[in-house]
Amino acid sequence: MTQHPAEHVLWALACAHLGDAQAARDALSVLDVSALDLDARVDLAVVHLLLGDTDTAQALLTAALTEAPAHSLLLARLAACHVQRRELDTARQLYGQSLALQPRILVFEHLLHLYLQSAELAHAERTLAEAQAFWAHERVHWPEPQAAWHTRQLQGLRLDLWLANEGFAAADAWLDEQQVALAEDDYCALLTGYAQRLAERGRHAQAEDALRRALRHYPAQQGLLQQLAQLATVQGRTPQAMALLRRALRLASQGQAPTLALRLKLVNIATPSHCALAREVAQQAIEEAQALQPSKELDPAQIAHWLAQAQVALAGVEAQEQQYAEAETRYREVLAAHPQLLIALQGLGQLYMQLGRINDAIALFEQVKALDPVRGHSALINARRFPDDDTTLQRLEALARVPSLEGSVQPGLLLQLAAAWEKRKDYAKAFALADEANSASRALLGYDPAAHRQACARIRHAFSRSLYEHRPGIGNDSTLPVFVLGMPRSGTTLVEQILAGHSQVHGAGELGLIPGVIAGLERWERHVGSGRHYPDCVDDLSAKVVAGITDNMLKELQEYAPEARHVVDKLPHNFESIGLIKLLFPRARIISVRRDPRDIAISNYFTDYAAKHGGMGFAYDLTWIGEQLADHNLLMHHWNQLFPGEILEVRYEDILADPEREARRMLDYVGVAWEPQVLNFSELQRPVKTASIWQVRQPLYKSSLARWSRYETHLAPLLRGTNAPIQWQPIADMVTLPVPGLLETGVARYREERLDEAEYHFKQLLHHLPEHAAATFMVGLVYVRKGHVAEGIALMRKAHEQCPWHGQWRDDLARAYTLSGEPEKAAQLRHKATPAAHTAAAHHEQEIDGDFAW
Question: Hey, is 567 helix, strand or coil?
Answer without folding.
Answer: strand
